[in-house]
Every structure is written in C-alpha cells, then in structure tokens.
C-alpha cells in the first residue's frame, strides 16, 4: 500500500513539476515569482538563516530556510512548513520525488517531502521519522526568527507567516482589545509544531497570562514528542532539556515567584514525559519542600515516593544522580587511603633514617651511593628496614588506593558517557543519533547490540533491528522482537515472545504491558495515554547503558594499564590530575610489591624507635603499630575520619555525601582513635623497653 501511495505521489509530482509558465528566482535574499499563483516578491529576513532552492511544485514554491522547508502560496504567504533536524542545504525534485538534504555538525541527512496541494493553501509533511537533535540552533529556531522581527513590521511578518505562533503571540500581546488578543492566542494553538517549540510557546503563553493556552500547548508537546519516539524511560541531560524548551528551568522560575500551582502543571509535564532528567532529584525535592511549606504534606509525600520509584535500574539503586554519590564515595576512600599510606610511609622512613645513614656511609653516603653502588643501596631503602607485615600493610594500602582512584576514574568516564547527547536526548535513532553513536566506543556484547538495534527499530528498520538483535536471548530483546512480530501481524509469535520475556524477567514492565497485565508505572501510563494500541518497547536501564559504554571497574583499570598515557586525556570525561595520580600510585604499588622480595635489613631494638618515630606514632594513630593488624585498622580509621572532616576546611567538597550532619560524630570518632592509639603506643613502648633490656643483657653476657 505504501508503494502504491508513493507511486501515485510521484506521478502527481511529475505532472506538477511539468507545469509550464512559472518562474521563481532567488537573488540574494529576494525571492521573485511569476506564473502560477500570480506575481509576487518577498525579501526574506536574515533571521531565516541560510536559504536553499527555490523549487516549484504546482502553484507552490518550496524554499529551504534554516532547519525548515517552507511552502509559499499566492503572495508569498506561508502555507506549509516541514521542520527538519538540520540546516537545509539543498532541495531536489529528481526521481519524481521532492527531497531535502540537511546538514548539522557534519551529519548529512535526506528526507522525502510530501506536498499536499489539497490542503488549504497547500501543506508539507515529511515521509521519514524526524528525530530532533538537542541543538538550540534547530529546536529554538522558530522562536528566534520571531524574536528578531522589528515591532514596526510585526503585523506584516505575521500575515506572511501565519504558521509561526511566536509571531502571532507577539501580535496578541500588542493588542489593546482583549477579545482580539484572545482570538490570536487561539490561533497560536492551531498549527503543527515540533515539541520543543510547543514547550517554548507554553512558557511564553504562561508568562503572558494565558495559563489555559499554556496547558494546551504542553499537551500538544507531549503528543508530538510521543510521535517522534521520545520516551520517559530514556534519560535526558540538562543540556538536552534546555534545548527542548528548558521546562525544568521554568519550574525553578515559577517556584521562585511563588506560583506553585503553575509549577505543578509543569512538574506534571516533566513527570509524564521526562521523569529521568538530569537534576531531577533536586527539583523533585525542592517542589516537595514547597508543598510541605503550604501544608500539602500528602502531595509532597507522593512526589517523594515518585522520585524513589525511579531508582530501580540505576547504579546500585541510588537514583538518577547515583553516579555522583559513587564518585564522591570513591574520592573519600581515595583521600582516606592516601592519608593512611602517606602516614605509614613517612613513619617508616623516619624510623629507618638514622640506621640508613650509618649503613650507607661506607657506600658513599645516602644519595651518592645510588650512583656508586646501586644494588647495595637498593637493599637499604627505608622499606627494607620494615618487617614483612609492615611492608604487606603499606603494599595493600597502595593497591587499595589504586582501586579507589580507578573507581573515581570509572565514575567520571561513566558519567560523561551517560550524559553524552546520544544517550540522553530522550530518544534513540535518527541520522544525527547514529552519527553520534559512532563516537562512543561501545563494548561488544548484548547491551551495545540492544542499544544499536533499538535505534534501527525506532527508525522503522525492523529487518535491520532483527539482524542486530541476532541470537541475543535476554528478556528485553525478546520483548522487542515480539514488538516486531506484532507490527507485522504475527500475533501468536508476539505473545509467545512476550510471555518468554516476562518468564525470564518477571519485573519487565514492557512485556507485562504488552500482555495486557496493566502494570503501574509512569512509562505504562504514558504508553496507554499517548500511544494507545501500540506495543511497548523495552529500553536499557542505566546499569545496562553503563556496561555498554564503560564496563565495570576492572575494564577501566585494564584500559589504563594498556594505554597509560590515555589517562592524561581529559576529553572523554577524565582528568589529567587524576591520571597523574593513577600513574604515580601504579608505580608506587609496583615498587612496594617488589619490596616484598627484599630481605629485611637488621634494625637493632635500640635504634628501632628514634624520637621522630615516637612523635609521629602519637600524631598519626596506627602508623607506628603496623606490625600488628590492629595498627593497620587504626590507621585506616584515622585516615577515613580525617578525610571526612576535611570539607570543614573548604579544601575539598563531597557534594553528594551526607557528611554535614555527622560532624559531631566524626570528631568523637577522631578522639577515639587518638585515645586507642595512645593506649597502644604506651603498651608498645613497654614492650620495646623490655626487648631493649633483654638485648643489652644478652650483649653483656
């Protein structure tokens, strides 16, 4: 049937393109038309951006302007507009169809335009799916064009382009007659817009005092977003949400103005379409606190419960911003281990310092001996004077520090990947998305295959999607294969696949929805309301996405070992300073591992506890007790408490860890470590005195 319609459209277009006697030229920004529809001329403003064409189709003139193709009728009045995901670079009528090429960020796409001459005045539509990139150049274009029209020419601009509602709204705001203004406001809601433009229009209608019209605009925005494949199960970054009209920013402005009821309308929009937006946890809590302040505790509790319901599927079920907590926890552990390791090495070095000076004197001195007798000097490094248990403790501290620093690196890389536009623009698929996906280094496996196949399936390429799913047998893939089967009319196979998916994963909402079990979730409600009768796709959760783009901690550490210099590259979300720290700790850990093979250099009891060592033993709990496992525990506890208290100095910040209210407990724990260390230190001094006495008596005998 689609082929028949395309053939008929092509034959009709061939006849239309053969219409003689019409001439349209574009000189600079002046468009002239003579022939069908009369003779007219328009000077196109610079705000429309780059121009392409023109192309004559029947009595219409098609013109590419910015990220849109316009259909101009009699007098140059706009009768149709096709919104595209990039700047239109060319229009072509070859092959009996009208195609438009777009270019954005080096990505070229081609779209087939359907010219409807039977619509009032003539209209345009796009045959393929148009997935809008989160780029303000595209999503904010209509509003930008309207904003640049001078007030003196506003009425004429609105007459020539009645399909730009931002022009009509500006005209309505300039009206003195309220009835005329209301009539113009109604006109703003009568056209077809991409959902980012609907959101921007809703904010302006709200600010202009037309809340009911704003509500209708938000309803239209949801319908258009749903038709484009935007889904509430896919996360949206702060940048993408800003390009899509910045509804979260507008909520913040409404709350600051005390317009809580209007903020509730916009919060509902976010909850229904973009519940997993970056910064959502903080905004949900802010709105709940505002409701609490108004005595609406029940509503506040319901919003908090909704925010908690979004945690399943996130990393460690910590919530949408859980990676921040993971990163801060790894930073805190790294700081604690770093302090502990530094304290241990410093204490061991101070203890060995006097004996080391005596032992290296015959070799040429503490430093020159490295040049004269390097092998003999290597046996007299300060860790050589430490006992095997002490060396093992500091080696384990170094390896643990390497692991926690790797955790920070992993959290940084994962966060950057999850915030990348390709994974956080609210939908998958489309030419821009596929081009961006190539910039991500996906790890081969079922998670990456699911992501790629989903993009193809959303674009309507079911055969390619089936090939990409391949032999993958997890529940999510089975559900999506069932969606393809149902789309092709094979209901028995579809139900078998849905049942198999639900049996493999009983909490899989998509499969339950497709079997008619009516699961209670925001995504199921969205599907039922805006895509009635359509099967529900299964999307990868945050954990699957993380496995696809970065893998686990071991993958990050292995990658760092294979390409150490890549750790210094901050372009992928890493940090040069963190990379240097990882390289430094890796080298230190390797040296400490080698030190385990060194024979212990004798250290007489009389020289084993010099004054500096005793001072550090009192100042650094556990550092002088590493011969005992409890010394390592005490040192680790001291490092953790000091690291947790460091935010009081302002030197470090752990924004995602609740340490502010625990200061009293931390100070008490710090005092406890010093008390235990003092007791253990006194006992160690007693043991040392007895040992030294026995040594002197043995020498006397």
TrEMBL record:
The keyword Transmembrane helix applies. The chain crosses the membrane at residues 578-598, 633-654, 660-684. InterPro entries: TPR-like_helical_dom_sf. Keywords: Membrane, Signal, Transmembrane, Transmembrane helix. SUPFAM superfamilies: TPR-like. Residues 1-22 form the signal peptide. The keyword Transcription does not apply. This is Tetratricopeptide (TPR) repeat protein. It comes from Deinococcus soli.
